[in-house]
């Protein structure tokens, strides 16, 4: 082997030593607090569309909680909630993940943490909310659009062929019957009961007490603390300190768990937003023309 | 001694060759140390870095990396010069290290490169060259070594 290759080989050995040692030196042994943002409506699955930017997928949050759980350097989890709630099952999935966490979880409600988002917060070990934040709003809502009169005006008829009596319940093309309304309300009551019972259990409150608060109204942070719905009012820093206290650590670095946006998603959102705002503009213009014609007052 | 060198077509290395050889070696060393270089990228401030020292494991980890960088830097110059009398940069410019004594020892190679661990020391060492009639660094004088150019 010539001298050149011998020198090169020695250099390669030195590089290999450096590379092997780097895996150790890059490992971050600092104690961490996982910060998991829950922002926007909680959904089971989001698709690229108008609402994509303001939704959060339950599976993503559950995955983040699991990752924080698996990472030994993560000593506690801080849920940064800014969400009006979401679908029942999606919210419940996150609730379950929070309950399964062996590490302390603190929820910080910044502006809004209502309905399903409050359910998630209730499952945590400690809730801190801004004094003017909106929280609570324990209740279930189900909305249906119904176009049957509009269709009548345009001479469009609806023909529903079904093998089950209630198969087209909630169809926007016909009015809901009283029986169907009662049936759906019954199901919502069941969900409501599960919701109330779980919140009561999570917060260590009497079920009757929570049921009396669960009328769908939201509470300000300062009201919620008196009602026992949250533990204390305060800032994000306070929530972070509480997480450290519960984790029994003095110093920790925050590690934010963020969903990675891919170029396709970003472009998808951009185009969706553009079309949404174009549509919104056209819609408002038409609405104004229509209302002006009818000479009625309106609020935009 | 000088006559022998002349017969072997050896002469003291010109400064420009030494500088260029050093630049090449510095680049190669940067490549070797590149895997270790991203150590502190996660810090946003110095206070964050120093706060992290409160963790014993992390303090060890930090000093481990620093020590490794120093050792590998020193090893690059010392091992190659001891083993082959030249580094890759010196190889390209036909330069090599010779001992003023009988054989080139490892301790001589170590001593002549020790100043490369600190840029301040190296600067002082290089400045000495301009005042020395032999155009040697101070550490080279101490180590009884010389850089020569050969054909």
Question: What does this protein structure show overall?
Answer:
The complex is a heterodimer of chains A (300) and B (151). Chain A has 300 residues and is an alpha/beta fold. Chain A has two domains: 27-137 and 217-286, 2-enoyl-CoA Hydratase, Chain A, domain 1; 140-204, no CATH class. In chain A, 49% of the residues lie in helices and 17% in strands. Chain A is built from ten helices and ten strands. In chain A, the strands form two sheets. In chain A, strands 1, 4, 5, 6, 7, 8, 9 and 10 form an eight-stranded mixed β-sheet that branches. In chain A, strands 2-3 form a two-stranded parallel ribbon. In chain A, helix 4 links the parallel strand 5 (105-114) and strand 6 (126-129). In chain A, helix 3 (88-100) packs parallel to helix 4 and helix 6 crosses helix 7. The termini of chain A are far apart. By secondary structure, chain B is mainly alpha-helical. Chain B has one domain. Helices cover 64% and strands 9% of the residues of chain B. In chain B, strands 1-3-2 form a three-stranded antiparallel β-sheet. Mean pLDDT of chain B is 82; it is low at 40-44.
């Amino acid at each position: 082997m010539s001298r050149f290759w011998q020198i090169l080989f020695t250099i390669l050995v030195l590089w290999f030593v450096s590379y092997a040692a780097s895996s150790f030196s890059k490992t971050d042994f600092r104690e961490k607090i996982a910060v998991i943002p829950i922002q926007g409506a909680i959904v089971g699955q989001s698709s690229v569309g108008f609402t994509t930017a303001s939704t959060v997928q339950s599976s993503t949050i559950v995955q983040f909680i699991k990752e924080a759980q698996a990472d030994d350097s993560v000593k506690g989890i801080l849920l940064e909630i800014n969400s009006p709630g979401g679908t029942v099952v999606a919210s419940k999935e996150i609730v379950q993940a929070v309950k399964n966490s062996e590490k302390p979880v603190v929820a910080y409600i910044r502006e809004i943490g209502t309905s399903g988002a409050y359910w998630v917060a209730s499952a945590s070990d400690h809730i801190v909310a801004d004094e003017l934040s909106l929280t609570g709003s324990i209740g279930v809502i189900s909305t249906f659009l119904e176009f049957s009169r509009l269709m009548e005006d345009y001479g469009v008829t609806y023909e529903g062929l079904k093998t089950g009596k209630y198969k087209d319940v909630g169809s926007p093309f016909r009015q809901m019957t009283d029986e169907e309304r009662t049936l759906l309300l019954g199901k919502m009551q069941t969900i409501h009961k599960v919701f109330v019972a779980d919140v009561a259990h999570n917060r260590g409150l009497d079920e009757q007490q929570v049921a009396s608060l669960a009328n769908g109204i939201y509470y300000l942070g300062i009201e919620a603390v008196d009602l026992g719905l949250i533990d204390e009012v305060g800032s994000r820093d306070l929530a972070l300190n509480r997480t450290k206290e519960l984790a029994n650590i003095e110093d920790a670095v925050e590690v934010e768990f963020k969903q990675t946006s891919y170029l396709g998603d970003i472009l998808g959102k951009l185009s969706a937003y553009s079309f949404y705002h174009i549509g919104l503009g056209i819609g408002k213009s038409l609405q104004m023309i229509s209302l002006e014609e009818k000479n009625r007052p309106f609020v935009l | 001694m000088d006559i022998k060198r002349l017969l072997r077509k050896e002469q003291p290395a010109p400064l420009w060759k030494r500088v260029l050889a050093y630049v090449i070696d510095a680049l190669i060393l940067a490549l070797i140390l590149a895997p270790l270089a991203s150590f502190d990228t996660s810090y946003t401030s110095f206070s964050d870095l120093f706060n992290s020292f409160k963790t014993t494991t992390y303090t060890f980890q930090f000093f481990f990396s620093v020590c490794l960088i120093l050792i590998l830097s020193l090893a690059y110059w010392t091992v190659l010069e001891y083993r082959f009398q030249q580094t890759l940069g010196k190889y390209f410019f036909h330069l090599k290290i010779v001992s003023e004594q009988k054989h080139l020892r490892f301790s001589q190679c170590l001593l002549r490169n020790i100043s490369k661990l600190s840029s301040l020391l190296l600067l002082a060492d290089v400045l000495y060259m301009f005042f020395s009639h032999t155009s040697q660094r101070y550490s080279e004088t101490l180590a009884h070594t010389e850089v020569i150019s050969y054909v």
